[in-house]
Amino acid sequence: MTPLETAVVRAFAGQADLRPRQGQLDMALAVAEAVESGSALAVEAGTGVGKTFAYLVPLLLSGRHAVLSTATQALQDQLFGRDIPAVSHALGLPVRVALLKGRSSYVCVHRLDQARTAPAPSVRHDPALTAGLEHVHRWAMASRSGDLAELPGPDERSPLWPLISSTRENCLGGVCPRHADCHVNRARREALQADWVVINHHLFFADQQVRESGVAELLPRAEVVVFDEAHQLNQTGIGFSGLALGSGQVRDLARDLSSQGPRWARGQRPWSHLALGLEQAARAFPQPSRPADHGVSRSRWPLRTPEGVDAAHWARGVAGVAAALSAAVEALEATAGASADMQRLWERAQALQADWTRLTAPSASDADGALVRWVDWGSGAAWKLVCAPLDASAHFRQLMGDRQDGRSWVFTSATLGSDETLDTFTGPLGLRARADLRTLLVPSPFDHMAQAALYVPHDLPEPADPDHTPELSRAVARWASRLGGRTLVLTTTLRAASRMAAQLQALVSEGRCEPMQVLAQGHGSKRALLARFRAAEASPQGAVLVASASFWEGVDLAGDVLQLLVIDKLPFPPPDDPLIEARARQLERHGESAFSACYLPQAALALKQGAGRLIRSESDRGVLVIGDRRLLTRSYGQRLLGALPPMRRLVDEEELMVSLDELAFTRLSTTGHSRS
After folding, report:
1. pLDDT for 483-514, tens place per residue?
2. Which pairs with CB-CB distance under 8 Å and at least 24 residues apart come from 578-585?
3. Exposure winner among 145, 466, 576, 623, fewest CB in 10 A?
């Protein structure tokens, strides 16, 4: 063993707080080897392995400088505020750690001042926004970090957010009158002085692209880079490897035009009229005739006019946005000298105009498949034009740089692949070409055969049948009634989630099942819904939570709070996903099966990710139901079942009901509670 590996073994053996779980020490030793050799390591660590401690312990013992990147700001906060202090305390080794987020995660004192002292008409005539600004001001005066995650009340969906934070496009930089008070600059300074810096994937890619938030200066000092929740890297990287412009950016420009123009160049241009032109152009942009099942309608473009949109209407919409941006650029060019704010606003409008031209002009890359273009439509007349590569491999290889520089790279997640090669993860990031890459699979230490059971109903309608969701809803009502709620339903589309929640609520209201709360995605934030679901454990009625999208991962409901997990259908990628469609065509051009090499691995990964919500601790017990009989009737069913942990198989609903009754009886016997 190397000295570091020996130290890792001694650390786990000598500290009760670090007593390793099964597989955790194996992962820690692999991380230690990668750290000492300056190589790359990709580790799939199943639920319960304790992967965070498995990389923190060898990293801390090595004494090396590191950048730690994770998927979300919430996970950043957890790593910074809980996990790192716990390991540091257990080992008795101090480490200077800094938390660095993107610019828009911090309050911008300059924009907050402006919003309060010279508010736009929309703010001036809205008492709630005015009161909200005063609330933020009082908090900002006392906050040292300026981290908006610490702000009680509004979140990033609030209309207050763009008024109190800055972006790369509207930040004034060194000429800002509040530059000395800037929380972003303070966070950067602390990061440059730290041993470890905790960032997120979004910030990593954004900074490498535009060098705007300090991470680029950190990497040369970093001897180790760790990506936790690494399965999200490719999708995040694609977003920064391409180009996108949407209605939100156009409306943001309109809002700032209406507030900054009159402030610095009153009477010189018809600012309200120009802002209205941008708003109307964004609102008039063509919409599809019907929404897609997964909540966002999308179609490849400009190879064809988007499905469900009249070609002439589409052309007018594109021209309308171009004209509104052109008018804004012309007005701002003539008044840019009035202030640093107006100068920055002009530069921002120019950048939007250039991006719009690039996005809407035909390109040779459309024909050769190097890039894919599409348009997304969301709710409330929201839209976004996107141009992106098929994967992030070229960009990420460039970011990793010379493999001889001695830097170590560690990638880890509970789901990195659908087989032992981890090709589903390594391929899109261009990691296969690295001779120094080692892959490791560490299975979950949980005894899924004893702790979990799997049931696949054979009598449900086919997934494409309109009766599938109603039939499954009635079944979920029966099953959840036996448990007193404690049920999470994951659907493959937002539309299915909405329909199922509505049908479950109707069954409850009509008295056709036991009384229970029905919680549905879209009726509250993810955090609030999960809090309500946990709180329902103490209620005699219990709850059923129906959700899609982001609830397939990042949901930790350990204990008796969740005992029945229902997945409505096999999570194949949406048929109109432009990137998946383009990858499939590319595979077929090379003589490969798009279904076997693309669609099936993606479904296996998503299924494993969703199923991982059920068993979260050694004491958890539960049942997984997958309401898609294709698992039993199609040849690929065994491959998808093989992606799941081994579980007891229930053959019919009678066995399922017995299992649910056993779960309910065991829980009630343990707690001494009874349902009313």
Report:
1. 999 999 999 999 999 999 999 999 999 999 99
2. 578/298, 578/299, 578/300, 578/372, 578/373, 578/374, 579/238, 579/372, 579/388, 579/390, 581/300, 582/369, 582/372, 582/390, 583/390, 583/391, 585/369
3. 466
